[in-house]
Write a structure and sequence with these properties.
This protein is an alpha+beta fold. The protein has 8 helices and 7 strands, in the order αβββαββαββααααα. It has helices spanning 6-18, 59-66, 93-98, 140-143, 167-170, 181-188, 203-210, 222-231, and strands spanning 22-28, 34-45, 49-55, 69-76, 79-90, 117-131, 134-139. Strand 1 (22-28) and strand 2 (34-45) form a beta hairpin.
Length: 232
């Protein structure tokens, strides 16, 4: 993986996805050829997973039932968020009811109980991004590695290797620049990371994540979003 601030890229990509109302699916059809289909995006959890609607009798769902491997692309203002992973048909009535949108009745007259009303859950495994004319590629597993107390993804820090920095967890709250206030706080509370704290996001964390300092997040709040993901 190239060296860049992965927590910032994660937030940028997640914000773009949250603004998109549809995604472009790439699936493998019954003849082994790729096919693209555009579907309404009902809900997305960052770039980790997303839910889409489609009719059960249609080619999209029939194709993913035969081959769950797929890809979905979100596009906004020239930025492309391409996610590669697996897709499955959601059958739980409670989830389908919760994701129902009023205008769906135009396609499914019997409401959320209509037998042709289908919900697709897409789960990301690999990410390829084009954001602000820059390319980023990484596995979703890279996002889930807990490497700090505050939500920074230390493995993508450009200062780590040159300065032999072990990060705040391995160094007991004392990375290369000295004692970290956030890490010290988490350690005193015996927490692996701030996402597990009842006070998250506290004012101290907001200062680091949402401030205007040189080392604060761009976009603001990036590490807070990472902590929410880590906390599950």
């Amino acid at each position: 993986m190239s060296i860049y601030n992965l927590h910032n890229v994660f937030k940028q990509a997640s914000d773009i996805v949250s603004q998109c109302t549809e995604g472009h699916f790439a699936i493998i059809d019954e003849n082994g050829y790729p096919k693209v289909a555009t579907r309404t995006c009902i809900k997305a959890t960052g770039i980790n997973e997303a839910y889409f609607s489609s009719n059960v009798s249609g080619h999209l769902i029939q194709s993913i039932l035969n081959n769950s491997k797929s890809s979905v692309c979100f596009e906004k203002d020239g930025n492309n968020i391409t996610l590669v992973g697996t897709t499955q048909l959601v059958t739980e009535p409670v989830i389908k009811k919760g994701l129902w949108l009023d205008w769906f009745v135009n396609h499914y007259p019997e409401g959320f109980q209509d037998p042709d009303y289908g919900i697709i859950k897409f789960t990301t495994e690999y990410v390829s991004l084009w954001i602000d004319r820059k390319v980023y590629k990484f596995d979703i597993a890279d996002l889930k590695q807990i490497t700090s107390r505050c939500g920074l993804m230390c493995n993508s820090c450009k200062w780590k290797v040159p300065n032999n920095c072990k990060g705040c967890i391995a160094s007991n709250g004392k990375p290369i620049y000295g004692t970290c206030r956030i890490a010290t706080c988490a350690q005193e509370k015996e927490l692996l990371h701030c996402g597990l704290c009842d006070e998250m996001p506290c004012e101290l964390l907001k200062e680091f994540s949402c401030g205007d300092g040189e080392h604060c997040d761009i976009p603001k709040g990036a590490r807070i979003e990472v902590l929410k993901m880590w906390a599950g």
